[in-house]
């Protein structure tokens, strides 16, 4: 967790942000996805995980510290990742806020059941557990956010 209180800016990602986002995607999953075998977490997964999705980034002091991507046709937030040293510093909440300003309701996302910190984060922000299912990454909750855009 950072104690850096410098301003956090969210904006549409540009092509030059790709490498920083891919590094965060890899590092955050390595640090927190304890339920996945380490060999299944690859650096080159970022392109496939975000293909054809809008991406917004958060930057602090001109450094990318997190990103969010979503699938607009379904108001589905697909990825929300924060650099490990920036977690619990407001980055995730700011990115989610920026994304939710772009999409309709209800908004949806999947959260792995083993990811207790992420579940607590989303529930604190008003998301509710709607249903459960499974994927190759394990059991997950489909989370919903109702209300106004």
Q: What can you tell me about this protein's structure?
A:
With 149 residues, this protein is of the alpha+beta class. The chain is built from four helices and seven strands. It has helices at residues 18-32, 45-49, 91-100, 116-124; strands at 8-12, 55-60, 63-71, 76-82, 107-112, 128-135, 138-145. Strands 1-2-3-4-5-7-6 form a seven-stranded mixed beta sheet. The model has no long low-confidence stretch (mean pLDDT 92).
Q: How confident overall, as mean pLDDT?
A: 92
Rg calculated over all Cα atoms: 15 Å
* Coarse structural class: alpha+beta
Q: Could you tell me the strand content as a percent range?
A: 25-35%
- Major beta sheet, specifics? 7 strands, mixed
Distance between the termini: 30 Å
Tell me the number of strands: 7
The tally of helices reads 4
Shape annotation: globular
**Could you estimate the helical fraction of the residues in percent?**
25-40%
How are strands sequenced across the largest beta sheet? 1-2-3-4-5-7-6
Q: What is the string of SSEs from the N terminus onward?
A: EHHEEEHEHEE
Unreliable spans are: none
In short:
By secondary structure, the chain is α+β, with helices and mostly antiparallel strands. It has helices at residues 18-32, 45-49, 91-100, 116-124, and strands spanning 8-12, 55-60, 63-71, 76-82, 107-112, 128-135, 138-145. It is built from 4 helices and 7 strands, in the order E-H-H-E-E-E-H-E-H-E-E.
